[in-house]
Write a structure and sequence with these properties.
The chain is of the alpha+beta class. It is built from two helices and two strands, in the order βαβα. The protein has one domain. The longest helix has 20 residues, at 40-59.
Length: 66
C-alpha cells in the first residue's frame, strides 16, 4: 500500500483520482493547513528550487514575467 500525502489539495478528492488510487492500492492523506514542518523535506526542496530559479533568472538578465 502506498501513501499520497498532500497539503489539502482538493483536486485529489475528485472521483477520477479516487478511482486511480483505488486501482493502484494508494491511500490519500492530507496534512494540516499552514503546517510546513509536517512536510519539511519537500518544503526545503521547494524553497531551494525557488531560490535557484530566481538566481538563474537574475544572472540571465531575464525580465520578471519569466
Amino acid at each position: 500500500m502506498k501513501n499520497i500525502i498532500s497539503e489539502n489539495a482538493l483536486e485529489f478528492e475528485l472521483e477520477p483520482c479516487k478511482q486511480f488510487f483505488a486501482a493502484y492500492d494508494c491511500v490519500h492523506q492530507t496534512t494540516c493547513v499552514d503546517r510546513p514542518p509536517q512536510n519539511g523535506t519537500v518544503e526545503k526542496k521547494h524553497r531551494h528550487l525557488i531560490k535557484m530559479s530566481t538566481a538563474l533568472r537574475f544572472q540571465a538578465s531575464l525580465p520578471l514575467h519569466y
